[in-house]
Each structure stands twice: as C-alpha cells, then as structure tokens.
Amino acid sequence: SILLATILGVTSGYFGGKVDVLVQRLVDAAMAFPTLVILLSLMAVLGQGLLNVILVLGIVPSANRSRVIRSATLAAKENQYVEAARAVGASHLRIILCYILPNVMAPIIIVAVLSLALADVPTARRAADEQIAVSEPLAQRDPANAAWARRLMVAYRRGASVALFEEDEAAAVRLGGQAVAVAEKLAERDAANLDR
Hints:
Layout: H1 2-15, H2 17-32, H3 35-46, H4 50-59, H5 62-76, H6 80-87, H7 92-117, H8 121-141, H9 146-157, H10 160-195
Helix pairs in contact: 1-2, 1-5, 1-7, 2-5, 3-4, 5-7, 6-7, 7-10, 8-9
C-alpha cells in the first residue's frame, strides 16, 4: 500500500501537468466510493483467495496516502538542487531517486506509521473468529490455505488469538515510535544539509 502510494504520489507530484491531472482524477474516483464497495468489487473481479485479499487490502487505502506524498513531492521539486540537477541534464529517474525521494522519506515514514496505527485490529479479530468457523470447508476447497487455517484454529483453541493481536498492537506502537524518531533524524539531516 505504501509502495503504491509512493509511486502514485511521487509520479503525480513530480511530472505535474496532464500526468498529475490523470492520476489525481483516478485518486478522486477511488476516494468517492465507499471502501467496502471497492473491496467487494475488486474481490468479485479477482476471485477468492488469500493472495487476492492481501492485494485488495493493499491497493484500496493507497489513494488517500498518495495525496500526502504528492504534496511533499510538490514542495521538494521546487528546491534549487532539483533545478540544478535538471540544468546539468540529469534524467527524471535520477532526479526522483536521488533528490526527490530522500526528501520525501519523512512523510512516507509517517504515513506508514499512521497506517499501522489505524489498522483495524478488532476487525481482524472478528475475521479470525469467523475463519475458525469456516476453516474446514476452506481447507477442503483450497488446499493451499489448509495449513494456514489449521494454524489459526490451533492458536484460537489455545486462547492465543487475543494475545497475539495484543502483541501486534504493542509492536505497532513501538515501531511507530521508532519510525517517528527516524523521520525526525531525516528532517534534521535535511535541515543541516540545507544550511551548508
């Protein structure tokens, strides 16, 4: 989700013009529909399967996140060093990778941390509970998911379901604090580089 949001946001913000208008209209269209409708529509097109669920859950939220990254890209591309790189003939890819992306990393990290913080853990718990009820038919229909369903059933029967999710929440909080610290260090480094 963050990778797709970064690609959309940086591409839209850097190139501007018709590319920006096209990408932003697609983002507007994605944001206009309720998330559940988009999720169900994509699942109807892609079909059942764990990989498809993961893909859909990664694609849908990236529209909102790409707006934040786009705004940071718009600010970064106006810096003098980007103009200097253009003047010496650097390619678009080089400018994006060497000059824009490093300066947009702090907002990307913050968006990633917020994505973890806003993860719907209660919904995941309900999904795990419902998966237990359908795990045997699921294992019979799709043998690739049989091992996953059995592991989930064993963890649930041992009462580990809630504990696992609570550990995940604590890990997300720790990761969030570390990511914010990294983002602050990146911002300080960028400020120090501009002062030189």
